[in-house]
Amino acid sequence: MPVPAPTAVREPPPARVMPARPVRVQALQELAERLGAPGARVDDPCVSPDGTGCARTALAPFFESLDALAVGRASGPTVIEAFGNSLIAGDRIVDILREDLGTAFGTSGRGLLLVDRMAPYGGRGRASHSASGWQPRTLGELRAPPLPFGITGVYHVATTAKARGRFKLEGESRGTLWWLDVPKGGALTVSSGGQVLAKTEPTGDGAAHATRFDLPEGATSVDVVAEGKGAVVQGVVLQHARPGIVLDMLGVPSADAGLYARMDDAMLRAQLAEREPKLMLFFLGGNESKRLEWKRMDLEKLRADLQTLLRRARAAAPASACMVVGPMDAVSDSHGKAQTFKQRPFLESVVGAEREIALAEGCAFFDTFTAMGGAGSLARFYKAGFMHEDLVHPRGRGLDLLGHLVTDALLRAWVETPPGAGRVATLSPATGPRTSSSAPTAEAAP
């Protein structure tokens, strides 16, 4: 008689355990409690129903990548792309996300950077260590700049020959120069310690290109130099080959979902394909609520713009999870009068519209407004010294706290969502109004 083939034993999915809280994280949690910022659960919709259960939620690609990092099975970096407005453009909020996830799962380099800052002020967390001879253009400008944008939402034009950007290295082994081949732009050279690592060969075809280079062992810096005036750089990727977290901060001041339409579709597809993200984040809604108050847009346009952006991004990176991060609390513009801390009209309508569109498009949603304490929370942040005088932008620890709220919610969602393995979850029905705490969530099957 033929011997039956042995039945394959399916390895059980790894247990998901909340990472230990470092002292810094615990201090932020205590600050949240003092400010009345309760946090919020991530709305993570089911994208693969299985009878009465759910085989897969929107954040599954990201959560599975964290699983691989947690048990040492990952073969490369877990890349996160964070699009957004000025709330993240200073890199402080996503710094917390990057640092906390990196502490828990390891880091794999700085990722996608700019050859210079977006403005002649501010820090260089997203840019080269030092630079000269570059003019920045962004998709947030009132009038659309003349050249197309990739996923950075920024390009820099050399205003002189020998324009230079110098990047400090942290042991990265590989890099990529993203550049536009504009007519008469001239070549760009990448070098380290006097050694030329790569040189572009422009033809003036107007297309976007990616020039890869290896970094010498022990190198401490790398330079990008324009050989002539007019060369255009979109970004520089610096990364390790090892597994770990990489977070690309792609925020642009004044941006909203509609302005992201200025990203060229071919560049969006090519650059996201190169980055291979496991999670795309969209920090949007603040500028939309402001423009609604000023009657410069309506909710119909807001919905259409966000839907278009999510569909374009998901088509360009179909293997990635996505999550929309809604706006924080906001107050009406006082127009020079005494500030009354009156809540900005339409704010809660924006939160509701963003949640609706995100879930309908197969993306998760995080309600920052609710997480920081809802109406009146901005006034509490301001009185505690965590808001600038413009009452729009948080400062210092206020930014850190917002970053903590997002990170904590993502990690809790990872822990609470059963790993995908066939029919592994049951949908609990919503009761009452659909909020971040009452939306259908995945629970362990009996």
Explain what you see.
The protein has 446 residues and is α+β, with helices and mostly antiparallel strands. 28% of the residues lie in helices and 24% in strands. It contains eleven helices and 20 strands. The chain has helices at 23-34, 60-71, 86-89, 92-105, 265-275, 286-293, 299-316, 347-360, 368-371, 377-383, 397-416, and strands spanning 46-50, 53-57, 77-84, 111-113, 130-132, 134-138, 154-158, 164-168, 174-180, 188-192, 195-199, 208-214, 221-226, 232-239, 244-251, 277-283, 321-325, 364-366, 425-427, 442-444. The strands form five sheets. Strands 4, 6, 7, 9, 12 and 14 form a six-stranded antiparallel beta sheet that branches. Strands 15-3-16-17-18 form a five-stranded parallel beta sheet, with helices on both faces. The protein has a five-stranded antiparallel beta sheet with strand order 5-8-13-10-11, with no helix packed on it. α1 (23-34) packs across α11.
Number of helices: 11
Radius of gyration over C-alpha positions, nearest whole angstrom: 23 Å
* Beta-strand fraction estimate: 15-25%
Question: What ranges have pLDDT less than 50 throughout 5 or more consecutive residues?
Answer: 421-446
The major β-sheet equals:
6 strands, antiparallel
User: What is the residue-averaged pLDDT?
Assistant: 90
Strand segment count: 20
By secondary-structure content and strand pairing, the structural class works out as alpha+beta
Helical coverage, percent range: 25-40%
Distance N terminus to C terminus? 40 Å
Approximate shape: globular
